[in-house]
């Protein structure tokens, strides 16, 4: 077989060269591109030769995600992905997945960059069929053609994203919200003081308190409403919303990676998942509608909410409401888990924490003085601490695209319809791309190369660490998340020294990539 392939390839090369030599003057630019792809195709290895775990008859590779007999633990997909890389190399195929396309794991930033650079105007990101079902079947009367940006593709996605990008992706717009974001961060600092026990340590459910801060921040920015999540007598409804978001994310990998029995009949997991989404939708819409009614009656000079900006631009209440709904759906756990992880890393690296605090106090020595974009931009080391945490422990350990046509990836001919997974967690923790990758070194993100590090440390591959994704479908809330995270870290380090005196925590998927255990961090004034 290999000999036959070789003969075919050599013949095609000969005729290709012959053709080029006699018709160069007649070839158009488009034809040249087409022939270049044909040449690459001629050189590419067939899809069936992509290495990966072999599927079993009937069970395929789906059995690997099953409890007891399977060897792919969903809570430790980080370790599974690393194992795939170590065993098979920079490109790995996991085929034979019941009810879903093959997955192609990429561990090469050069190849990831190529995929991003060549993506279509309407890139197809591997969506969640379960969420797609909820939006376009179960709740189709509500969403209609306006499904938002999650689990939506094609023209409907493009129309929605184009409109909201003007607000969500402009740095100058995000910077306008530093005031309300700082206000919520200071409420969280006050909450920390109340939570401390006799040892000045946080309770076992401290991460849940960070979730409350995140929810309060989103509500303030998106709707200009104060939910009171951080009050002693916080409404039970806010906790219900946080629990529903957690349930949603916890059930996604179960529904998507294990046998999709829910497509045949409603399983207990699927019913729980639908109830969680209904809860998120109902509670979010309640506050969205309150905000919409308030806008009609109040005309004060407050900073416009995201909801208000969308309405002013398009006057479409449905677009504004579904954008806010998507922000509640995916903005709570992602931002809060990132903050929990950053606080844990700072607490376990006191020298780095001291250096960050020294920088913060040199720029903003008075806790009560308002932060500005200029002040935040003058804290490169603090930003580097955040970036380094997201390099080693990205909240979302990977993202990807679905091939919309036959493509050459990693030297193989990949057919249309394969889900390409960009495994950033594994890549960003390889010495090949980051010197001493297992060490927490914020200095690697500074423009000035620190003493003792090679020049390669600051010249890392731009696609080796992408905590917010890249391209047309990069994280819609990135600008706001950056400001929220930095602001709350600044306000905390202005007031507290962080310590951690317990067993070192491993990381796991629960539902984001987060420390596995209670964040019993000590906060000393």
Brief overview, please?
The chain is an alpha+beta fold. The chain is 52% helix and 6% strand. The radius of gyration is 25 Å and the shape is globular.
Task: Describe this structure as you would to a colleague.
With 525 residues, the protein is α+β, with helices and mostly antiparallel strands. Among the domains are: 1-43; 145-396 and 467-524, Orthogonal Bundle (Cytochrome p450), CATH 1.10.630. It is 52% helix and 6% strand. The protein contains 19 helices and 10 strands. The chain has helices at 2-23, 29-43, 77-88, 109-117, 129-138, 140-143, 154-168, 171-175, 178-195, 206-223, 236-257, 268-297, 306-314, 317-347, 350-363, 373-377, 380-392, 424-427, 478-495; strands at residues 91-94, 103-106, 399-402, 407-409, 412-414, 419-422, 497-499, 507-509, 513-515, 522-524. Strands 1-2-6-3 form a 4-stranded mixed sheet. A two-stranded antiparallel sheet has the order 4-5. A two-stranded antiparallel ribbon has the order 7-10. The longest helix has 31 residues, at 317-347. It starts with a helix and ends with a strand. Mean pLDDT is 86; it is low at 1-30.
């Amino acid at each position: 077989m290999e000999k036959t392939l070789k003969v075919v390839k050599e013949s095609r090369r000969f005729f290709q060269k012959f053709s080029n030599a006699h018709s160069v003057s007649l070839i158009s630019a488009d034809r040249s591109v087409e022939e270049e792809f044909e040449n690459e195709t001629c050189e590419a290895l067939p899809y069936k030769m992509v290495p990966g775990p072999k599927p079993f008859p009937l069970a395929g590779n789906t059995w690997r995600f099953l409890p007891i007999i399977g060897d792919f633990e969903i809570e430790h997909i980080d370790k599974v992905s690393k194992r795939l890389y170590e065993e098979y190399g920079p490109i790995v195929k996991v085929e034979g997945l019941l009810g879903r396309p093959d997955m192609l794991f990429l561990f090469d930033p050069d190849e990831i960059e190529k995929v991003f650079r060549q993506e279509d105007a309407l890139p197809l990101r591997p969506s969640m069929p379960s969420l797609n079902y909820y939006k376009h079947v179960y709740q189709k009367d509500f969403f209609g053609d306006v499904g938002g940006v999650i689990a939506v593709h094609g023209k409907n996605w493009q129309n929605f994203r184009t409109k909201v990008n003007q607000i969500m992706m402009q740095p100058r717009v995000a910077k306008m919200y530093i005031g309300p974001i700082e206000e919520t961060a200071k409420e969280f600092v006050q909450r920390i003081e109340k939570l401390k026990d006799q040892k000045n340590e946080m309770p076992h459910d401290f991460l849940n308190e960070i979730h409350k801060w995140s929810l309060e921040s989103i509500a303030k920015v998106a709707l200009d409403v104060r939910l009171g999540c951080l009050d002693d007598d916080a409404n039970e409804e806010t906790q219900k919303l946080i629990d529903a978001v957690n349930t949603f994310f916890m059930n996604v990998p179960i529904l998507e990676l294990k046998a999709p029995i829910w497509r045949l009949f409603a399983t207990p997991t699927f019913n729980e998942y639908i109830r969680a989404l209904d809860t998120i939708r109902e509670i979010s819409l309640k506050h969205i509608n309150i905000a919409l009614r308030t806008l009609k009656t109040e005309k004060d000079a407050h900073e416009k909410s995201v909801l208000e900006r969308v309405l002013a631009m398009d006057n479409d209440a449905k677009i504004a409401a579904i954008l806010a709904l998507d922000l509640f759906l995916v903005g709570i756990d992602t931002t809060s888990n990132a903050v929990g992880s950053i606080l844990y890393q700072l607490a376990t690296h006191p020298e780095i924490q001291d250096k960050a605090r020294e920088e913060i106090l040199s720029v903003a020595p008075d806790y009560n003085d308002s932060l500005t974009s200029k002040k935040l931009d003058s804290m490169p080391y603090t930003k580097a601490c955040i970036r380094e945490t997201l390099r080693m422990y990205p909240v979302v350990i990977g993202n990807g695209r679905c091939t919309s046509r036959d493509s050459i990836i990693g030297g193989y001919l990949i057919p249309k319809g394969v889900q390409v997974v960009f495994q950033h967690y594994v890549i960003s923790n390889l010495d090949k791309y980051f010197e001493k990758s297992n060490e927490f070194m914020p200095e690697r993100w500074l423009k000035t190369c620190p003493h003792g590090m090679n020049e390669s440390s600051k010249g890392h591959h731009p696609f080796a660490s992408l905590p917010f994704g890249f391209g047309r479908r990069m994280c819609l809330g990135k600008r706001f998340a950056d400001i929220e995270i930095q602001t709350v870290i600044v306000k905390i380090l202005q007031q507290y020294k962080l310590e951690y005196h317990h067993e070192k925590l491993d990381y796991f998927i629960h539902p984001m990539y987060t420390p596995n255990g209670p964040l019993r961090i000590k906060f000393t004034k």
